[in-house]
Amino acid sequence: MTEWMPLSIATGLAAGALMGGLYFGGLWWSVLKIKTVERKKLFLFFSWLFRCVFLCGGLFFLANHDSQMLLGAAVGLLSVRFVIVYQVKRKIPQKIKQEEKAAWI
Q1: What distance in Å separates the CA atoms of residue 14 and residue 12, rounded to the nearest whole number?
Q2: Domain-by-domain residue ranges, the chain?
């Protein structure tokens, strides 16, 4: 049984937050960018591939280093997910209102 190491958990939390920000932020960026891209399927595939390779590689590295670091990374990843989903849900109604106003002008 391993002892509890707060520094390891904090490092994992920061790494998970960084990976989550890049993964879910990249997903939102891809959704916004898809309108202007000519080859949509290819763009979405490579966007997904890059995000998954980065996330899986980071989690694999943390899992090989320490299990507590992996646990912290999972918490950081999910925390960032909730923050980004909250922000996106707030921005969507504002965009819809702006588009409706523009349609009336």
Answers
A1: 5
A2: 8-104
DSSP 39: S
pLDDT at 90: 82
Nearest in space to 28 (alpha carbons), one of 94, 83, 70: 83
Give this prediction's pTM.
0.79
Annotate 65-84 with DSSP letters as a single string: H-HHHHHHHHHHHHHHHHHH
Max Cα–Cα distance, the chain, nearest Å: 67
User: Which two three-digit tokens encode residue 59?
Assistant: 């989690």
Q: Name residues whose C-beta falls within 8 Å of residue 55's C-beta, 6 or more positions apart in sequence.
A: 19, 22, 23, 77
Say which DSSP state 38 is in.
Answer: S
